[in-house]
Fold this protein.
Amino acid sequence: GGVSLTRSSLPALCLGQVLHAQNGVLPRPSIRAEPASVIPRGQTVTIVCQGPAGMDTFRLEKEGEVLYPDVKSLHETETQASFPIPASEDTAGLYRCLYYNGANWSERSEPLQLVVTDPQTPWDDSNSSGE
């Protein structure tokens, strides 16, 4: 027969991921925003999606819709993809990412809440409050 791995030969840390993989469920990727998840309008925010190595494709979803092109992984060693997004009123919302490993799509990441603020204008501070 084939080679069977005994559970005891695996480090305890990997066990959770191995059990997941056997069920066909891929570990969910992580998601973060750079430089921050609160961004002034007109700036560019980069959403970074990170998963295990050997990914084929990363996808970014905003509230369940795919608004951005999938990012293909060029090398098997790449574990993250960057989605630069110019911040506008439409940018705010909940983002999740997922990845494709050539056979299955992963679970979605935790939601990332992106907040777009009005840029600070110098004359907005104290003068606007009339007396």
Remarks:
- The chain has one domain: 26-118.
- The two ends are 86 Å apart (CA to CA).
